[in-house]
Structures are given as C-alpha cells and as structure tokens.
Amino acid sequence: MPRPPFDRVPTVFALSLLVGGCLLVLWPFLTALVWAAILASTSWPGFLWLDRRVGGRRVVAASLMILLVAVVLLGPVAIVALVLADNVAELDRAATALFQNGLPDAPAWLAKLPLVGQSGYDYWQRFAHDGAQLTVELQKLAKPAKDAALVGGRIVGQGVIDIALSIFLAFFFFLHGEALSRRLGIALGRLSRDRASYLLGIARGAVTGVIYGILGTGLAQGILAAMGFAIAGVPGAVLLGLATFFLSVVPVGPPLVWGGAAIWLLQQGEPGWAAFVAAWGFFLVSMADNLIKPFIISRGASLPFAVVFLGMLGGVLAFGVIGAFLGPALLAVGYRLAIEWTAMESPA
C-alpha cells in the first residue's frame, strides 16, 4: 500500500534542513572549493604524469603538484600584493614629475569634435604650461585615489588567502579525484540519464579553454609586460603588468599599456628605452596573445568576447581577485551547456 503524500513531508523537511545546514557551513569556502575543483580538473593530465614518475605514490605526487601550482599561481598574486602600495606611490611621483610644468597645448583636432570638443579643448588649455593649476586640480583626486588603492590592496590580500586555501583543498581533490569523478558521474547520470559523460566533457572543455587559453595567456602577458617595464625602468612595473593581465581579455588592451609606457619614456627623453618597450610589447607580449591563445582555445572551447569580459569583471566584483579566474570559467560552462541544451533535438 503506497504511503500517503503527507507522510513524506517530515523526510523532505529533514533533508532540506540537512542540505541547508551543509550549505551554511560550506558557504564561506564555496569559492575556494569550486576553484580547487577547477585547478584539479585542468591540471589532472600533468598530475597523472607526475604520479607515474614517482611510482604511483599518490601523496608524493599530490604534494609536488600542489607545490608547482602554488609557485605558478600564488607567486604572482603574492608579489602583486606585496608591491602594490609601493607601485602606487611610485606612479604618483612619476605623474607629479610629468605634470609639474603643466600639460602641453591641447591638440587642434580636439576642438573640432562634435558636442564636447570645444569644452574639452578649453578645459585642457586651462592647465597648459601651468603646473600649479594642474597640481591643484589633481589634488582633488588624491583622496579617492588613495581610498581606491587601499580597497584594491585589501582585495588583493584577500585574493591571496582565497587562492592559498583553494590550493590546499586541491591537494585532496588530487588524492581522491577518481572516486569523486565516479560519484559525480553517477549523480549526473541520475539527472540526465545517458548524457552525463557527454555534458561533463563539454564542461571540462569549456573550463580548460578558459583557464589555459584566456587566463593562462593573460597571466603570461602580464608577467612578460611587467618584466619589460622593470628592465626599462618604468615606474609601477608590477601594477602595469597587473593592468596588462586584466586588459588582456580586450583585443587592444595590452597595447594600450605598453604603448602608453613607450610614449611616457619618449617624453622623458629616453627614445632607446621607448623603442625597447615598444618592441618588447609587440614581439613578446602581443605575440603571446596572437599565437598561444588561438591554439589552446581551439582545443577547448571558443567563447564570445562578451562571455569572457563579463566573466572576468563580474567575477572580480563577486569573488575578489580569485574571481578573475573563477568568473570566466563559470560563465564558460554555463554558456556551453546552454548552447548544448538549446541545440538538443525535441523528442518525437
């Protein structure tokens, strides 16, 4: 005799309380858990290779893999957190020295722009060759800029903690990856029947394409740009490298950074270093984007620019520094699964 429907209410209520309690406990660590799973998934082939090299000693292989991931991922973020304040102060001194004699004359084409051209030209001319007036104007922005720098420093510091926690959690994903994968496949199989492995493959391809093709390339561009700026003596090299990383999702983003640095060096009477920065940016920073990214993305998932751009910005706003990696990965999975779901044929 079937049980009355109201007899299931206590069971459903108890299960809901259990699930809600588990979520409440894990909620502060949810971001780190998701990122740890992504780290383990995308680096799993390398972990298996390392495991074979150490004779199947899983704990040793997982420890070595975590050490490698920490150096590659946590190292740059920690360096940025340590030197961010110094870089901001260095850029402030460089900007003060640059504008101490005021701005140069406004270009004539500015006045010809429709609507705002003439007002913009007049505003620029107020500070032409008048360093004192320009200093007074810039001082109005000093406090907001310092506040923004402090907030940015706190966000970067929290990002270091989140990434460190995710790397620690990834150790256990490496140890028990096969068992977790089997249980995830069983759970998805009960929800989507025979399409579980196919959907998991789509999700993994999307995450791999984002992590290696977009974020990995952006990280390489940021590091290369910071190295070039440091060699040329550009103030705030690490901060400018961080800007290069975030702007790498924009097609013309990195050239704006290294091109601006080259122009600054030219204005400082350093044409040789300006040419060096321009050549470094064109042949190393931009070529990394043009050569590496298409190759890796073609092996993962080709994603629209808007998905990656909104994923990075929204991820940073939602999760902090770690969101720069987590946001695009989550949106990529959602986008690919949505495309797959809408492309499915309707049942007869």
* Series of H and E elements: HHHHHHHHHHHHHHH
Number of helices: 15
Large-scale geometry: elongated
N- and C-termini, Cα separation: 35 Å
List the helices and strands and how they pair.
Layout: H1 9-26, H2 30-42, H3 44-53, H4 58-98, H5 108-111, H6 117-125, H7 131-139, H8 142-175, H9 177-192, H10 196-232, H11 237-247, H12 253-267, H13 271-299, H14 305-319, H15 323-343
Describe the structure.
Pfam families: AI-2E_transport (PF01594). It is a multi-pass membrane protein. It is found in: Cell membrane. By secondary structure, this protein is mainly alpha-helical. It has a domain at 195-348. Helices cover 81% and strands 0% of the residues. It contains 15 helices and no strands. Helix 10 packs antiparallel against helix 11 and helix 12 runs antiparallel to helix 13. The two termini are 35 Å apart.
